[in-house]
Amino acid sequence: MPNGLIMKALAGYYYVYDKGTIIQCRARGVFRKQKRSPLVGDHVEYQAENTTDGYIMDIQERSNELVRPPIANVDQAFLLFSVKEPDFSAALLDRFLVHIERQEILPIIIVTKMDLLTDDEKETIQSFVSLYEKIGYQVRYTSSKVELDFSELTPLIKDKVTVIAGQSGVGKSSLLNLLKPGMNLETNEISSHLGRGKHTTRHVELIEIEQGLIADTPGFSSLDFEQMEQEDLRFYFPEFVEAMDECKFRGCLHDKEPGCGVKRGLEEGEIQQSRYTNYLQFLEEVKSQKRRY
Ligand SMILES: Nc1nc2c(ncn2[C@@H]2O[C@H](COP(=O)(O)OP(=O)(O)OP(=O)(O)O)[C@@H](O)[C@H]2O)c(=O)[nH]1
Ligand SMILES: [Zn+2]
Prior knowledge:
By secondary structure, the protein is of the alpha/beta class. The chain folds into 3 domains: 3-61, CATH 2.40.50.140; 71-215, P-loop containing nucleotide triphosphate hydrolases (Rossmann fold, 3-Layer(aba) Sandwich); 230-291, Ribonucleotide Reductase Protein R1, domain 1 (Orthogonal Bundle). Helices cover 30% and strands 23% of the residues. The protein contains 10 helices and 13 strands. It has helices at residues 29-33, 90-102, 119-135, 147-150, 154-157, 172-179, 230-233, 238-243, 261-267, 273-291, and strands at 3-10, 13-18, 21-27, 43-48, 54-59, 65-66, 71-72, 76-82, 106-112, 138-141, 161-165, 206-209, 212-215.
């Protein structure tokens, strides 16, 4: 049976891409009985006599699955953070990273709107963000006002399924528009009294850009720690996982426990204070959410 990739879902139809052709398909009734439904990003088997009346027969196992936007098999997330408008926030960056790590998606940190900074300010932000490179995260700096900077991103896209994430107003739509000039997503001028834009991008579709696929709708809109276990949080901080071998207790949460490798790493400057502070803050949040049930 032929197979392909779902690029778009709209009004009960799925648009399956197979070797340069798009086949419009419906889902087989059996999926509804099994309470399964195909997602954009799914690799599927289908049957079709022509390009408009196909049926999806089976869905291959997913490597991950996002809820908002509904999309499967995402390889990486471009995590956008602007240096200004809105201001850069390390706490929010760490929060996004936890959610992306949790989905087993590779985060790539993209610092946007560099054109708004003086040279001194640039240096400050770069030395802070380089701490994340030390942890192992890839970092890129861009400005959608200066196209040259951004050509660095295109090699990262090839052969990958990428989702773009970041809070409102950081430049997600602007970046997508630059990557694919024909796409013309609405961009928002920031409303000055609120200091943030409102979401304008809607439907989900994978778009082919530079031999890779990018979701045209940003991901990770919900950033609470609902349904997270307090024991799991520490695994979403890669540098903690490394230091954990030194912890005296196997179930160490790196909080009040004695003989903690993470706290030692902190004292020795191997682990950043802001990362640790944010971890403890998130841990409290996870605990207090649990208490509510
Ligand atoms: N100075 C400067 N402004 C930028 C840059 N990128 C985007 N902007 C501006 O920032 C504002 C928000 O950009 P968008 O691309 O709409 O941001 P978004 O992340 O898609 O926002 P939402 O749709 O609300 O999630 C717009 O006024 C853009 O023109 C940049 O690199 N430099
Ligand atoms: Zn510990």
